[in-house]
């Protein structure tokens, strides 16, 4: 691990408070009555109901949404047997993924016990606390026995993700990969390199799907697993021992249709791939370096379909496509186990999803990337919002059909709709933006290149390939600060540096600036001085000229100071009369866009309408369908104060200009954010679901709402996003963090991609 990444990771885990998890109460505790309901004497009522019917624990406690991620730290990915305590950051990370992707609560439980019998006893004793058990990073072959005995003993789902999560996603890739190459499961020859828990689970599921066991060859560090072999064997591996003359991977792979790699980077050589059957399917799943890099395989076999565990290549085999969602479905129907039927239902749901037409919002989020079923798209993207309302219903149905659901779901369609509300509550909204930026990183200029936050954000953009950075600033200052901060970047190699004091085009740019500003009192000498001394002006001129693709201005100085300088040079887009700002706020339970917290003090109805339409356009860049609420102190005509009338008038203008936009108002914030509240006030409201775009009546309301929510909700903000400018330029405020600048950098690149 690079030193800079290591240091950043340590800082991430340590601040602002140690670890990645916290416990939060879900009920108010504001009065003596609240206390009497939560604890003595009121809590006795819930206890009595559960004693009468144990299934009521899911109704009166958190158990129905609570999973234990359990490990003894004997096989931590990439680290080995590091022990229970050292494995805790990994388990906390797994807990975060459960919460972020499927709103499943998790306790991570690290147990310092390597005796399988004792470990089983400890885990089994947790059944009263949890609705499910996710076993993690337990070494083979003990993990097989541990899981088997716990499944037999416990009446809640027990799932070893290292085995079955990998197997489910690999199974979906196998189904779709064979669809692409036109081969049948029962006809293929499959070679697997690796014989650990994940590999054997992948093979078992492949057999369940229809691959013939006699057509499978397994290799490990000792070579082919064959019937005459005695060294380095165990009963689990022996199930796949084959009567064969092959002794090496090179021998086994000749003529194979499918390769499963769950071993080590570089294990599959190009010359081996050359001997595979026509149109081979290669699942090289070792991380972080696959058994063969896709470009190596494609160079020798252009007809191959390739999947890896990496996010920077097509067809990522990622467990996150499975484990949050299979547990979501299992918990919601009260499944007593995760059986084969539920696993196969998950495989089919993932596979079928990749073959369907990708919704416009997903396509937009991934920047027009070819998300059409084929060689480079056999698996859904991990951040596809359809996963949450596709997989859990399939899992729940399979549980009900197989008789293991204790709380059957009567209306699966309504259940799916309820799950869709979890989409974008997770904070995952930025990931498609990052991925899209990586596809085509453009020239992004930072006007305040000497600022520490800008330098740190620039380094992230370089390491993550979001952009090709250009910095304005004094060379010696920037180089000294980079050295002081220990950033692994160099001017002229990783980024371009423009020092206005010796930049050869400054005089030409000053002349262009004078042409723009000469009739506003700026004489030629002043123009020259401004261009050399005001980096925002220089940055804007370079953007106007097309020397760079996007600009980030600020965060030094005042917002309006930078905004005025930018608009003097860049101007507004054709047809736009009102610039504005949009702020994205990522909270634990919601993702909100708020307009306009920085630019327009008291916009009129026409300006409100224009701001709404511009904001909705930007919301779509995130792959989100905008649902706009015109927010006021008034609820649907309850007040006739001027500010309320203004919002009603704006609604009429919006509907006239864009009748397809989901928007309603004027309404109070609770009506906008709660379907229950809004339904009681105006059941016929045209706003569908919870609003995700709040249009405020004035700057005070917008700024107060944004800043209060950010602090109280511990939110992550992205922005301000400048609306209406003729070119991709964004002005940041003084409180922005390095992370905020990195987020806006990726967004600015994505916006610039659509302007080319």
From TrEMBL:
Residues 18-151 form the Malic enzyme N-terminal domain. This is NADP-dependent malic enzyme. It catalyses: (S)-malate + NADP(+) = pyruvate + CO2 + NADPH; oxaloacetate + H(+) = pyruvate + CO2. Keywords: Metal-binding, Multifunctional enzyme, NADP, Oxidoreductase. A divalent metal cation binds at residues 136-137, 162, 287. InterPro entries: Aminoacid_DH-like_N_sf, Malate_Decarboxylase, Malic_N_dom, Malic_N_dom_sf, Malic_NAD-bd, Malic_NAD-bd_bact_type, ME_PTA, NAD(P)-bd_dom_sf. It holds the Pfam family malic. NADP(+) binds at residues 76-83. Its EC number is 1.1.1.40. One of its GO terms (molecular function) is metal ion binding. GO terms for biological process: malate metabolic process. The active site is at 94 (proton acceptor). It comes from the Bacteria. PANTHER family: NADP-DEPENDENT MALIC ENZYME. Residues 163-400 form the Malic enzyme NAD-binding domain. In the N-terminal section; belongs to the malic enzymes family. In the C-terminal section; belongs to the phosphate acetyltransferase and butyryltransferase family. SUPFAM superfamilies: Aminoacid dehydrogenase-like, N-terminal domain, Isocitrate/Isopropylmalate dehydrogenase-like, NAD(P)-binding Rossmann-fold domains. Its cofactor is Mn(2+); Mg(2+).
């Amino acid at each position: 691990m690079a030193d800079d990444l290591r240091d950043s990771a340590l800082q991430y885990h340590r601040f602002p408070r140690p670890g990645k998890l916290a416990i939060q109460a879900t009920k108010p505790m504001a009065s003596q009555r609240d206390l009497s309901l939560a604890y003595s004497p009121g809590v006795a009522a819930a206890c009595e109901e559960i004693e009468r019917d144990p299934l009521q624990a899911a109704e009166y406690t958190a158990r129905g949404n609570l999973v234990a991620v359990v490990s003894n730290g004997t096989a931590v990915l990439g680290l080995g047997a590091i022990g229970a305590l050292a494995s805790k950051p990994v388990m906390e990370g797994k807990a975060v993924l459960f919460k972020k992707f499927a709103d499943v609560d998790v306790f991570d439980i690290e147990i310092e016990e390597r005796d399988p019998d004792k470990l089983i006893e400890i885990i089994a004793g947790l059944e009263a606390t949890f609705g499910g058990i996710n076993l993690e990073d337990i070494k083979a072959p003990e993990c097989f026995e541990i899981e088997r005995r716990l499944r037999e003993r416990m009446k809640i789902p027990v799932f070893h993700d290292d085995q079955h999560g990998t197997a489910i996603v690999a199974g979906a890739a196998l189904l779709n990969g064979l669809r692409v190459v036109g081969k049948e499961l029962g006809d293929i020859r499959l070679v697997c390199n690796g014989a650990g828990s994940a590999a054997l689970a992948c093979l078992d599921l492949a057999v369940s799907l229809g691959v013939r066991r006699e057509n499978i060859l397994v290799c490990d560090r000792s070579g082919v697993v064959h019937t005459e072999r005695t060294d380095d064997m165990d009963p689990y591996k022996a199930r796949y021992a084959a009567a064969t003359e092959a002794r090496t991977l090179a021998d086994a792979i000749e003529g194979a249709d499918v390769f499963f790699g769950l071993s080590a980077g570089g294990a599959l050589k190009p010359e081996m791939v050359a001997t595979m059957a026509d149109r081979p399917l290669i699942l090289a799943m070792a991380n972080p370096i696959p058994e063969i890099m896709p470009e190596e395989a494609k160079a020798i076999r252009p007809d191959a379909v390739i999947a890896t565990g990496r996010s920077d290549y097509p067809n990522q085999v990622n467990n996150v496509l499975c484990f949050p969602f299979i547990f979501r479905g299992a918990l919601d129907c009260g499944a007593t186990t995760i059986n084969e039927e539920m696993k196969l239902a998950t495989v089919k749901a993932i596979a079928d999803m990749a073959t369907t037409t990708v919704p416009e919002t997903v396509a937009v989020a991934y920047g027009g990337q070819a998300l059409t079923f084929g060689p480079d798209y056999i698996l859904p993207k991990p951040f596809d919002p359809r996963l949450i309302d596709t997989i859990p219903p399939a899992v729940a149905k399979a549980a009900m059909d197989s008789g293991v659901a204790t709380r059957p779901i009567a209306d699966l369609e309504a259940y799916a709709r309820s799950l869709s509300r979890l989409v974008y509550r997770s904070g995952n909204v930025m990931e498609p933006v990052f991925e899209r930026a990586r596809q085509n990183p453009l020239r992004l200029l930072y006007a305040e290149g000497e600022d520490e936050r800008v330098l740190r954000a620039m380094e992230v953009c370089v390491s993550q390939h979001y952009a090709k950075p250009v910095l304005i600033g004094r060379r010696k200052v920037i180089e000294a600060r980079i050295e002081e901060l220990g950033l692994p970047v160099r001017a002229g190699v990783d980024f371009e540096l423009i020092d206005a004091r010796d930049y050869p085009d400054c005089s030409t740019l000053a002349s262009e600036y004078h042409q723009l500003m000469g009739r506003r009192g700026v004489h030629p000498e002043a123009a020259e001085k401004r261009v050399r001394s005001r980096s925002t002006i220089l940055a804007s001129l370079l953007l106007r000229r097309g020397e760079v693709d996007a600009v980030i201005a600020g965060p030094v100085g005042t917002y309006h100071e930078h905004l005025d300088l930018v608009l003097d040079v860049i101007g507004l887009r054709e047809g736009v009369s009102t610039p504005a700002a949009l702020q994205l706020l990522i909270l634990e339970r919601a993702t909100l866009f708020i307009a306009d917290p920085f630019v327009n003090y008291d916009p009129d109805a026409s300006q409100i309408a224009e701001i709404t339409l511009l904001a909705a356009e930007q919301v779509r860049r995130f792959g989100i369908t905008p649902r706009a609420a015109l927010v006021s102190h008034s609820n649907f005509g309850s007040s006739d104060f001027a500010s309320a009338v203004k919002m009603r008038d704006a609604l009429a203008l919006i509907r006239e200009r864009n009748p397809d936009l989901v928007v309603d108002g004027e309404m109070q914030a609770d009506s906008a954010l709660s379907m229950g509240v809004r339904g009681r006030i105006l059941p016929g409201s045209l706003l569908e679901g919870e609003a995700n775009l709040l249009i405020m009546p004035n700057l005070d309301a917008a700024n107060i709402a944004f800043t209060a929510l950010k602090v109280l909700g511990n939110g992550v903000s992205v922005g301000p996003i400048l609306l209406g400018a003729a070119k991709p330029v964004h002005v940041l405020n003084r409180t922005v963090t390095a992370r905020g600048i990195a987020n806006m950098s990726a967004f600015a690149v994505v916006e610039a991609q659509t302007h080319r």
